[in-house]
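Hello everyone,

My group is preparing for a crystallization screen and wants a predicted model to guide construct design. The compound we'll soak is adenosine-5'-triphosphate. Before spending weeks at the bench, it would help to have a computed complex in hand. I've included the protein sequence and the ligand's SMILES below. Output in structure-token form would be ideal because that's what our pipeline reads.
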Amino acid sequence: MSRADLPTPDGGPAVVVEDLVMRYGGTTAVDGLSLEVPRGSITAVLGPNGAGKTTTLETCEGYRRPQSGRVRVLGLDPVRQRRELLPRVGVMLQAGGAWSGVRADEMLRHVAALHAHPLEVGMLVERLGLAECGRTPYRRLSGGQQQRLGLAMAVVGRPELLFVDEPTAGMDPAVRRTTWDLLHELQRDGVTTVLTTHYMEEAERLADLVHLVDRGRVVESGSPMQLVRGRGDATIRLVVTQPFPPGAPESLATALGHGTEVTPVDERSLVVTGPADASTLAVVSAWCERHGVVPESLTLGRMTLEDVFLALTGRGLAPVAAEPAA
Ligand SMILES: Nc1ncnc2c1ncn2[C@@H]1O[C@H](COP(=O)(O)OP(=O)(O)OP(=O)(O)O)[C@@H](O)[C@H]1O
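Reply:
Good plan to model first. Here are the tokens for the complex, ready for your pipeline.
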């Protein structure tokens, strides 16, 4: 019997995904992905655009049937037992979800009325700044306003389990922080949250557990602290004025010695992870001098999830320009 077939008693995982494979024509969006979401946790599925996050979430939400592999949500099959799950699960989609001509507060009151013990609509309207939407119909709201309404609609029914897809995309920094606070408050009330994001800061600030996803698979899982500590606390970034000479990362790795990883980011920058400290910095600086490489910047900083992802996959999480200021 597989893990996903086991009954999920209270206290067991809220979500179990096992060897999930999902294809769109010739594109394999999800390629043998397995993950668990502990009850009561905020679990982030973090990965770059196109990694398969939304497809995985939509399968957990019952919108797609697994082509291969298994998914269990609160111990139930999200497609066959959808009716049982609907009142227990809140879903915030990446876009849409409200009628185009409806006002934000009307829509929220309508969704609240479908639930037995909804949250207070006025409180949500105020917390998420929805009063500013006034009489504007949904289709004319800004992207950020639509996002906030989507979140409010997902949480208003006091779900046991909340799926939120890129919850703060398009939100300004103040509303992003309010959203993070709201998700933490819901967690204190016992709500389990699964969120997808490609903002590593969002995962670091919010999540108890992070699944790093690349090309349809989980490449590493752990708390943000575990993921970062597992690779040394610090990281060195080297940006140079001219493209590196051929073989530069290998040559630098040899100079640094065992236990240090050198990952090229692009033709003029690289990241050193492992036991990176002031003496490592000195070795990098001496290597630059020996090889006629002129640093534009050489910095020693705290390791981030972005660095971990880069070390694991050789690629960044998101184009730098897409990362919003928090
Ligand atoms: N309806 C679809 N038809 C065809 N291909 C699709 C469809 N939905 C997703 N894909 C492809 O499947 C892959 C995974 O997409 P998915 O949206 O699941 O990734 P993601 O990690 O959520 O990305 P993003 O952060 O951009 O939303 C991508 O290559 C995407 O182009």
